[in-house]
Amino acid sequence: MLEALITSKTRLKLLIKFFVSSTNTGYLRGIAEEFNESTNSIRKELNQLSDAGYLVKSQHNNKILYKANETHPLFKSLQKLIHSYLGIDQIIENVLDRAGDVSSVALIGDYAKGLDSGEIEVLILGNDLNTIYLLNLADKTAQLLRKKINLYFEEPVDIVHRIVLYDV
């Protein structure tokens, strides 16, 4: 899908990292380690995305921090494109439709960190949730997206990153 449009795998990873959630930030060496890629390839893509205005840089303790430029005219469109690519928009629509009394839906795990690992972890909280429906929906969505989907109905204790997708 999106790989045909954005042929650089590194660029696609960076777009996912920074546009899945506008709060995600990173610096050159940290991103290179996270993606297991050379600093040169990461630097090249970060510079191109910054020069185009999609990312903003700021100095923080002798490191240059990067984050999505929320004031860029295409920010919302890019974020929606990334969410569609990851299947987040479909998950939310379907979950809220027939899942019961949903109070909160959050993306956790690798995707919350901006990593496209192929495994989507979703935390769904609420009362009288239709867990059978949700698990069936997760299986169907996983086949459609060709990604593994794990649902959590209780908050795991080791959550470090979370992107709230829906909250009452």
From TrEMBL:
It comes from the Bacteria. InterPro entries: WH_DNA-bd_sf. This is Transcriptional regulator. It comes from Sphingobacterium hungaricum.
